[in-house]
Amino acid sequence: MSHTPDLLIVGGQIYQPGIGLGPVSDLRVRGGKIVELGSGLAPAGEQVVDASGCLVCGGLVDLRATSGEPGNEPDEDLCSLSETAAAGGFVAVVVGPETLPANDDHAVTELVVRRTREYGICEVLPMGALSERLRGESLAPMGEMAEAGAVMFGDGDRPVGNSRLLRRAMEYARSFDRPICTQPLDAVLAAGGVMHEGVWSTRLGLAGSAAAAEHIAVARDIAIAQLTGGRLHLARISSRRSVELVRQAKQAGVAVTCAVTQWHLRLTAAALAQYDSNLKLVAPLRDEEDRRALLAGLRDGTIDAICSDHMPVGTADKQVEFDEAKPGAIGLQTAWSLVQQCVDAGELPVAVALAALVDAPRAILRLPAADLVPGRSATLVILDPAATWTLDQRSSRSKSQNSVLWGTQLRGQARLTLLRGRITWHADGPR
Amino acid sequence: MLPQPSATVPPLQLRHLLALETLSAEQITALLDLAAEMKSVNQRTVKKLPTLRGITVLSFFVESSTRTRMSFELAAKRLSADTMTFTASSSSLSKGETLLDTALNLQAMGPDIVVLRHNRSGAAQFLAECIGCSIVNAGDGAHEHPTQGLLDAFTLRDKLGDLRGRKIAIIGDIAHSRVARSNLWCLTKLGAEVHLAGPATMIPPGIEELGCVAHRRVEPALEGADAVMMLRIQRERQGNDLFPNAHEYHRFFGLDAERLQLAQPGAWVLHPGPMNRGVEISADVADGPQSVILEQVENGVAVRMAVLYAVAATRGLNPA
Prior knowledge:
The structure holds two protein chains of two kinds. Chain A is of the alpha/beta class. Chain A has two domains: about 5-55 and about 375-400 and about 405-425, Roll (Urease, subunit C, domain 1); about 60-365, Alpha-Beta Barrel (TIM Barrel). In chain A, about 30% of the residues lie in helices and about 25% in strands. In chain A, strands 1, 2, 3, 4, 5, 16, 17 and 18 form an eight-stranded mixed β-sheet that branches. In chain B, the strands form two sheets. In chain B, strands 7-6-5-8-9 form a five-stranded parallel β-sheet. A four-stranded parallel β-sheet of chain B has the order 2-1-3-4, with helices on both faces. Chain B has helices at about 25-40, 65-80, 90-95, 100-110, 125-130, 145-160, 180-190, 220, 245-255, 255-260, 285, 295-315, and strands at about 55-60, 80-85, 115-120, 135-140, 165-170, 195, 215, 225-230, 270. In chain B, helix 5 (about 125-130) links the parallel strand 3 (about 115-120) and strand 4. The N and C termini of chain B lie close together (about 10 Å). The longest helix of chain B is centred in the last third of the chain and has 22 residues, at about 295-315. Chain B has two domains: about 25-145 and about 300-315, 3-Layer(aba) Sandwich (Rossmann fold); about 145-295, Aspartate/ornithine carbamoyltransferase (Rossmann fold). Chain B contains twelve helices and nine strands.
């Protein structure tokens, strides 16, 4: 899989950032670059890839994934993470700082960047810790981490309870032009909650985490972004009211962006009826009105991005009582399939979905837009909406199996992923 | 002498008993009818049936409970089952073995039916998915306590007859009560009108969507009620933030003789035990003529016999 072949991708529908879906066109790739875009291109010695019926776009970019490496390699290492991402059509993935040791130091940042560059299967972009040891007490050395390749700063899934520290972090990060990423939660109000508080937590007898615990923190984080002029990215929002707060903040000119996970677009708390610990997530699944508000937020641009929320957890931490289970689900490989379900259900225009998976994450990370034009590096994905596949031992590239979709047949898959011309994933390829 | 479910009783397909939410009114009624036959056995001089001979019932109690465990063991013994007991505090389990590993070890000893009590909601469902035995839920966290729901319904049916249209008040910490949830499902399926009450901190969100009326004071729940079920207040929760102190709780939310007069004359008083006299219930009411608290305990054995019988029959364990 390590070669950079010359390719002629024919018959695909091309998505261009800022423009949307264009007509069916052909793309010629040589020496790792796009050299020609047009219709009816004739092969000139390239390998021909038939992309008819498929979407061709810049590779997907994920803003929230978790790696097991360093520290928890049996659940996921940086190689398996890269391969899982590529198989899902991703070319770049932001990984959180909650490793062992935590990524609160440039040495860890460098390790992650260097390892994954060696593999060359996916750009793995570290989120540096906001505070030392993720303790929420004193600032982590952001400057050095930024130098080493950290693209944003945050304490991962740990809520930053200390508003003053968050203020300082947002100010300090401005000097390095990096956004601060928070997982909004009022931890005291949410204490003990293992799912969304509502009729389903009542029915199941599980302790609930009120939606207010999320939007209280959303409101505070926005206020601090406004105070400091810093850039704020909310890693995952899940409630209707959070969407409203972000919408108002954007109207007021606050530099806030946010993402929603693939799960929240398709599922609600009702999916927990059988206590499936794979649906215990950091941001809990909420009600149908929340799900609809999240979709509406994506459609009107309030929500910028869709994230995979990829979080590998071994069976020892999942095959336990729901209360005891570690939250999280693997998701890099299924993100497109779930998003396509929304598209197929008429809930999300495909151009909006692609903007949320390709353009918006790049803009938040200040990466150049992924125009598929001659001269640009061939970093792209061919998405096949008709492909059917099953997430299982054979198809999954992750070392973990914690997904509610395990064993389920899905529609929509990345056919081919290219990173700077290199084939990093080929659905019909070996393995 | 053997209880032969009469021809009018629909066959009970009950591989596990995890919850009452998923049972039909017919299944519940069939179980209660079977329990009535079991109760007549319990009133004989020789209180034993050979029905479950050769069948092993394992009581797996991760959360301590003396009365429920003894009630199940007595039920199993009266049906001639072999019984064994495994008790462990949840913390000792979590320090060493996982619930799954412990359960697999117990399964290897070959029990047919596992009676599980656990402090985590969903634990019975989890075990049923993981091991091959039949699981009888003896209470899982704040989720359900199905045999308690059945024995309460049995007691109420015994006293009131048909429960359709009857007003039943359930008072106390609804939010953390598996007894309240099982009773809610069971009684509404049997046609009763369920009114829940307690301080608003103890009324969980969305509870009315499950088919009941919820009140933040006890008086409207008590008014005209045919029966009142008081729930145990966890005094150890006092450090918690659900109510200020036991004295205040009793004043506003406890059941005493005066407040009981709001209910129908002769309304029955139930309590799943153990009681906190002077907190959720005053001594005169607990010991008074309207109290059926000890009958609940007696009926519990009959109901658990019926459940074990039905589960064994469903597994094809050929109850004699």
